[in-house]
Please model this.
Amino acid sequence: MLRIAVPNKGSLSGPAAEMLHEAGYQQRRESKELRVVDPENEVEFFYLRPRDIAIYVASGRLDVGITGRDLLIDSGADAEEILPLGFARSTFRFAARPGTANGIEDLKGRTVATSYEGIVAGHLADSGIDASVVHLDGAVETAIQLGVAEVIADVVETGTSLRNAGLEVFGEPIMKSEAIVIRRTGADAEEGADPKVQQFLRRLQGVLVARTYVMMDYDCRVEQLEKAVALTPGLESPTVSPLHNEGWVAVRAMVPAKEAQRIMDDLYSIGARAILTTAIHACRL
Model:
């Protein structure tokens, strides 16, 4: 069986389970379950702490895992990203009291507190900055108030908690993170492309496509077909079928979901009618 690591809690857990369910895999019914076997799909899921997943995958005990890009890099584990999943997006940045620093060059000789020591130390080293890094497991905003550090490095979403602590972000983002699928580095080169891993990735890619696109159907006059097709080119090309009424055709194409309303407006303006959009629940490209 394919052995897959899944986050057992935190912001990665729920969306990961939802995506796996949409991909047709059986998921746990209770949060206390640590292992689920899906015999129909020949998959075994292990629910682990998100920070530990890269270590397990790098060891080769598990074939693939879902974790955050930030957690993979911070772990230093011998594993690599093989598919971004588009959820749990975040930005990692430096923050301090106003006037403390304007950029990373101002961190020389200073102390930085963070829960992601591996990321920060590596980023400082790559930038040629000699600064001290203090590891904290959480609530790094208080490190400055208590005098443990002059600067913090943390995940920033809205920045509200930083502002409430009297801090502001500065400099360029350290990194942008999201949920990813990982595998042991060089596994394909050593063992060859595993068909089970490839099937797993195709299923997840199908979910990503299904979430990104909708199916659009509409009728239009033949003389307006080229303009309509330019608005809805589809992935290869749209499907065009003649209607019973002469001079009309039915068109079907996949379009980006976020642009669907605009495309419907543009189609209507050139005379298309009976314009419908339908959600896509599964897809293979």
Residues 103 and 172 are 7 Å apart (CA to CA). The chain has a mean pLDDT of 93. DSSP finds ten helices and 15 strands in the chain.
